[in-house]
Structure formats: structure tokens, C-alpha cells
Amino acid sequence: MWFEKKDNYVIFYIKAQPNSSQNKIAGIYGDSLKINIKAPAVEGAANKELIKFLSKTFKIAKSEIEFISGKTSKRKAVKLPLNEKVEELIVSLK
């Protein structure tokens, strides 16, 4: 499963694809949510861009988005507060 819902937050298991032409949610890839990121995977640039993209997409403060695991891996676990926009994504991709 590509997400885990808890009380007031959700953990997304993300497959990051750096060096893409644009930032976008590409869909479900196995047991992960595939997200294309423009930034290269150099010195944390892709992670910063991923946080910025998630913040903008789901209208969440960057400080509320947290890496649980996989900071140096392509597969990451990211914790976000559960809100309406996050719910919409989960429902649309089920």
C-alpha cells in the first residue's frame, strides 16, 4: 500500500524520480506513489524540491512535512498532516 492513514496524519511511500521535465504526481508505481521532481539528486536538492512540491500541492506548511525514512534513497516515507487535499488524492488514486 502506498499510504498509511493515522489519526490526523498520513504517511506516503514515495518513489522519487529526480531530473524530470516537471514536478508532478505520476501515479501509483508498485507499492509507492511516484512523483517526478525537476531537481537533480545532488546534495539534497531533490528532497528540498519534493518538500516544496508537496507543500504547494496539498496547501501544507513545509515545516509540517517530515521524512520518516529514505532521505538518501529513491523510496521515501514522508509524513504529512491529513487535510482535504490529501484525502482527495487518496480517493482519486484508489
Largest sheet: 6 strands, mixed
CATH class: Alpha Beta
| Topology order in helix (H) and strand (E) letters | EEEEHEEH
User: What does the radius of gyration come to?
Assistant: 12 Å
The domain tally reads: 1
Low-confidence runs: none
- CATH architectural label: 2-Layer Sandwich
What fraction of the residues are assigned to beta strands by DSSP?
35-45%
End-to-end separation in angstroms reads 10 Å
Class by helix and strand content? Answer: alpha+beta
Number of helices: 2
Overall outline = globular
The CATH topology label is: Conserved Hypothetical Protein Mth637, Chain: A
Number of strands: 6
Written overview of the protein:
The protein is an alpha+beta fold and 94 residues long. The chain has a single domain (3-93), classed as YggU-like (Conserved Hypothetical Protein Mth637, Chain: A, 2-Layer Sandwich). The chain is built from 2 helices and 6 strands, in the order ββββαββα. Strand 5 (66-69) and strand 6 (75-81) form a beta hairpin. The longest helix is centred in the middle third of the chain and has 14 residues, at 45-58. It is globular, with a radius of gyration of 12 Å. It starts with a strand and ends with a helix.
